[in-house]
Design goal:
With 357 residues, this protein is of the alpha+beta class. It is built from 12 helices and 10 strands. The chain is globular, with a radius of gyration of 21 Å. Its EC number is 2.7.14.1.
């Protein structure tokens, strides 16, 4: 497969589109956790019960009803190769838990990959909607359409006082996790981020790395999400997160302006050194690639680099992960082989971008 064909098939639509506040917000995600009333939570169900839930959802998908998002494809985890599941994790379409730990897990996936419904993960159903830029309200509206469609065909576990019942008590209530992926190099370079994160936590929000809980903030990318799901409406949770994200956007832009005024030549040097590394390296590790990609994205946003799209960070942060590198190579790779492939893939992608301008 040529690199261009691989790219066209590998990249989700949100990766190469720009939404509102795209210079700082990479993506917005809404996730709704739901369980079926007549079954025990996934940790306790038998294989037969797990398969029955999948069959129920398969019948719904194959029947009439949900047309707003096109055809949904059902992927059974036990039918996928480990590498295929790893790629789905790297694209944020399924969780590591579903990929590794669920013998009767499945996923409903829309063709454009904006919609993903995990089945028999920590909960029976986890609806996920992913959009580029700051579009939490739009993502919530889409998730509610799918939620209403499901609830019209199956009965959820619901309590009048507690709301939707979930495996983890921290999700009880709305079952909603709203999150945004933000690129915050200005706050890192001006050393403000360590003071900001505790303040965000005090507002009932949590700051994580690119792949959620326990992951690193590779490439200066942070995931900001709500912690409170009980006692607030879905709309209030989303509005609160949008408000905080708006303040973070303002602080990041202010930090970038300060860097421009006080350290422009040093910043330009950093950006173009990183661009040179990405354009010419023959071997590069994940962390160095992420750092350089962040620098180049910042250089694009600040107008230093003019012939490359800012969506390249969205793409390459995914395409340079181990699963994608091995998929492109057609099989397993040793760590050093992955580093060589990563460097080659980045060079090819940059060349393709420049040639098409």
């Amino acid at each position: 497969m040529s690199f261009e064909n691989f790219l066209n098939h590998a990249v989700s639509s949100w990766m190469n589109e720009e939404g509102p506040e795209a210079d700082i917000v990479l993506s917005s995600r809404i996730r709704l956790a739901r369980n079926l009333e007549e079954y025990k939570f996934p940790a306790l169900i038998t294989n037969e019960e797990g398969q029955a839930i999948i069959s129920k959802l398969k019948e719904m998908v194959e029947g009439p009803g949900l047309t707003a998002f096109g055809k949904l494809e059902l992927l059974s985890m036990h039918e996928l190769q480990p590498l295929q599941k790893r790629v789905l994790v790297e694209k944020h379409l399924i969780s590591p838990h579903l990929a590794e730990d669920s013998p009767f897990g499945a996923c409903l996936l829309s063709e454009n990959e904006e919609i993903s419904v995990m089945v028999n993960e920590e909960d029976h159903i986890r609806i996920q909607c992913l959009f580029p830029g700051l579009q939490l309200t739009k993502a919530l509206e889409a998730a509610n359409v799918i939620d209403d469609w499901l609830e019209g065909n199956i009965k959820y576990a619901f309590n009048e006082d507690l709301g939707y019942l979930t495996s983890c008590p921290t999700n009880v209530g709305t079952g909603l996790r709203a999150s945004v992926m933000m690129h915050l190099p200005g706050l890192i370079l001006t050393q403000q981020i360590n003071a900001i994160i505790p303040a965000i936590n005090q507002l009932g929000l949590v700051v994580r790395g690119i792949y959620g809980e326990g992951s690193e903030a590779l490439g200066n990318i942070f995931q900001i999400s709500n912690q409170i799901t009980l006692g607030k409406s879905e709309e209030d949770i989303v509005d609160d997160l949008i408000s905080v994200v708006g303040q973070l956007i303002a602080q990041e832009r202010s930090a970038r302006e300060a860097l421009e005024k006080t350290s422009r030549i040093q910043l330009e040097d950093r950006v173009f050194r990183s661009f040179g590394i990405l354009s010419n390296s023959r071997i590069i590790e994940t962390k160095e690639a992420a750092r350089c990609l962040s620098d180049v994205r910042l250089g694009i946003d600040m107008g230093y680099i003019k012939n490359i799209s800012r969506t390249i960070l969205n793409e390459l942060m995914i395409l340079t992960q181990p699963g994608f590198l091995q998929q492109y190579a057609g099989g397993p790779l040793r760590p050093e082989e992955r580093d060589i492939r990563r460097a080659g893939l980045i060079r090819e992608r940059l060349k393709l971008e420049i040639d098409n301008r």
